[in-house]
Amino acid sequence: MDISLSRYQNSSVFESSSKPLTDVNLFQERHLLSASYLLNRRKRRAQVSGISCSFVEQGLHPKPKPKPLGSGHDVVKKETHVQKSQQMKGSSSGLCSQIEKLVLCKRYRDALETFEILEIGCEYDVHVGKSTYDALVDACISLKSIRGVKRVFNYMINSGFEPDLYLRNRMLLMHVKCGMMIDARMLFDEMPEKNLVSWNTIIAGLLDSGDYLEAFRLFLIMWEDQSEASSRTFATMMRASAGLGMISPGQQLHACAIKMDVSQDIFVSCALIDMYSKCGSIEDAQCVFDEMPEKTTVGWNTIIAGYALHGYSEEALDLYYEMQDSGVKMDHFTFSMIVRVCTRLASLEHAKQAHAGLIRHGFGLDIVANTALVDFYSKWGRIDDARNVFDKMPQKNVISWNALIAGYGDKSKSDVKFCHASSSNHFTGSYPDHHHHHHHAPASEQPLAKIAIQKALIAVQESACITANPLLLGCEGEDTEWVKVDVKSDEPSAGDWVGVFSPANFNSSKCYSESDDLQDGPSICTAPIKYMFANHSNSDYATTGRASLTFQIINQRSDFSFALFSGGLENPKLITASSPISFANPKAPLYPRLAHGKVWDEMAVTWTSGYNVDEATPFVEWGWEFQTKKLSPAGTLTFTRSSMCGAPARTVGWRDPGFIHTSFLKDLWPNTMYTYRMGHKLTNGSFVWSKLYSFNSSPYPGQDSLQRVVIFGDMGKAERDGSNEYDNYQPGSLTTTNQLTSEIDDYDIVFHIGNLAYAKGYISQWDQFTAQIEPIASRKPYMVASGNNERDFPNSGSFYLSSDSGGECGVPAETIFYVPADNRAKFWYSTDYGMFHFCIADSEHDWREGSEQYAWIEKCLASVDRQKQPWLIFAANRVLGYSSSSQYTIEGTLGEPMGREHLQKLWQKYKVDMAFYGHVHSYERTCPVYQDQCVSLEKYNYSGTVLGTIHVVVGGGGSELSTFAYVDTEWSLYKDHDWGFVKLTAFNHSSLLFEYKKSKDGEVFDSFTISRDYKDVLACVHDGCGTSTLAP
């Protein structure tokens, strides 16, 4: 962003700054922010009457002005009117005085009620003075009363009152503080005169509403319009720079603040510290803090928060004690921050001291600080202390409850009952599970595995019933429907649950063993595809025996029935079942997944249907929009129960997967929009069609154009209807899916690097996963990698001997998703996207030096032409590089054992830019690193020679989050305990932007840029030099 502060600077940031921008939209649209453009743009011309109209549109009609007396009225009536008017004015002046006194006594609601009496009685005839309006502004702001704002402002307009500049600014502030930014902006634009207060008010409002770009635009106009800027202005704009995560505008603002001699203003200094901290430069933040002439409480709090934000917990604690020694008064924010720092450091002694200080300084009842204490004591095994603090809190919020409940869960005290916690709330822990084979990411049990379906008994209650509506789904071609299920039981209990079974006829007298033999056995031999407790949305079910549930059902090639069970999940007893329901065409072609073919101009389309090749011929109709379409044939695959390696995939988790079809669309033009639909030609000559989809073809390898890549791992699937206790299994899955769907036009290709559906042997879950990602995978190439939850099973050829796949041993993933591998059972492959070259490894097969995969990795890295494809990316599911996750450090490692030992020389030799991993459910970024040492001190703007590889763990796609260990590693720069994904943007052969974005809101949490030329890739580095000779 170029803040053209011409009075103090001779060049813009694009000319003078050595640090590239870290926001792609600003990078592309920087010319929109130039002062000349902004000053010449057409201004909005909405009149003040337009603001009144906006009130009418929102349902608040202004009272009509009194009609003028006509000429036919007699003198007596006129005199009476005048007398009444004078009486009203006399009484209204008393009301105005009363309003001002009520506001002075902070009785704001009474003040607005008194104003309403004035409105009703006086009908705009009374002069309400400036002081009364000023008081009413205070009342509206204090109550955040939008209705009050509309009434007060409407009265001012209709009474003909002409406010001065002071009162106009107050009215503007009233709109801003009550969140009415549209009306505030109209009011601001129509102000006949503006001063710094006006500009500061509207800019601050834009910042509070998150519109940082518009705030900068207005600031540029103000800079040209006003002769000076106040310290408040600079402090406000620092917030905008911090909000955008862009350090360059903040640095320019800092320079101007110095030249205007306001840089050491307390508010400006605190804003600078906050801006530098949030933009990643804690060193600059420390410099500003050191130069503060007076170190206030806010200043100390801001610098401590900055160090804590970047994981410098010990430094933050040292600053806390410095603050204590300085004699500066501490507030509740100070103590709550330090308690959270102590949580990271696992420092009980320091936390106890902070607790004592909290009480000593009079903040013993503060909800924020006490919640931090509950969280600390809970996480570090002091559950009695946590409960003691919790019980003394006069107010509690959801965060407080979550902290305590997580503590009890970690101590296995599940018998504790929380009477005040709503039964509809879901609470999620975030602690790793290490009781499987080593190095597993934390994972709760597969929800369907909790059901002991083999133990199910038939215990039909004649009076019980369960009904589902509608009976026929997808009448208009829908592949997803919402079904209402009504339950009635005369013997209800809290453990009753409803299972969804498909096929509908799930009661069988024969069951399969792991050896595939049919045996006499239990009454029910297949798990439901989802379930929900009867009291899920009916808290009084155990009393009334009546419940109404809503399930989301997707087309899965068969009919469905709903069954009511008692006895909980561990001792299920079948009480009753519904009549079957089904989709109009259960065999329809569904859930397309795009993927790169083996050459750049080829796109693979894979989908699922119920049609085998003896029933219908599969194909894809595709081409340019409004042009004659081509037909491409498709191959058909499936897999059977006998393809599975063990339980539950081979037993209760088995469900027919249908048929998987793949068609290859060839000879695509680069960067071209194509439409397509899947079809099946039936044996009778008729056709069955899917919906119409579209995609953009890939750029030519090496093509210089804007190219955007999304990378994440370990997303899993979740249930939009709340079934399967989804919050406890893959709580962030839908959050990531929703965010990627909302940003679908802002990226070009997706890499989901392993741990896909977390089906774990329950085959029905693969359909639900492909349905969940359909909005993404049907429009963008969705490239996948193999993880432990797809592949690992003992005696199945996997490198690791865990049972994580639930007996799938890779078969469903390898069949349902196409990848351009030579052998899909060996899930490693390379692919190109324009200026990117990707080497996707399979961490579940041997990757050590001397193995088949090691030779392939070297071949993949060596094969790229870096002049055409400068951006070289390595990816795998397990962390073959660096991680400070507790799931590794608890066993004495900082990544997969032998990973770096065997692969780092290849990364260094071929100058790999970045290596991405999943498996650990969090985010972590390293410095450019080789042999455990940072080879560059830069953190945000890399340029020149490729000295080492940046390693990124991006496994927070949706599964239960992993925790970090409290270890001091030189190479770890940034960590985030949240769900998110990485976006890479290549602007050209020399400039690349890296962004880590939060799934919950798409905000950028971490970013950096790479700038270099081809000669920098060729340059010799340690262990990365080609052979040479001195011969001429």
Descriptive labels:
18% strand, disordered N terminus, 35 strands, alpha+beta, eight-stranded mixed sheet, 1032 residues, eight-stranded antiparallel sheet
Would you summarize the structure shown here?
The chain has 32 helices and 35 strands. The chain has 1032 residues and is α+β, with helices and mostly antiparallel strands. The strands form seven sheets. Strands 13, 14, 15, 16, 17, 18, 19 and 20 form an eight-stranded antiparallel sheet that branches. Strands 24, 25, 26, 27, 28, 29, 31 and 32 form an eight-stranded mixed sheet that branches. A seven-stranded mixed sheet has the order 23-22-21-33-34-35-30, with no helix packed on it.
Protein model, in words:
With 1032 residues, the chain is an alpha+beta fold. The strands form seven sheets. Strands 13, 14, 15, 16, 17, 18, 19 and 20 form an eight-stranded antiparallel β-sheet that branches. Strands 24, 25, 26, 27, 28, 29, 31 and 32 form an eight-stranded mixed β-sheet that branches. α13 packs parallel to α15 and α17 packs antiparallel against α18. The chain is globular and about 90 Å long. The N terminus is likely disordered.
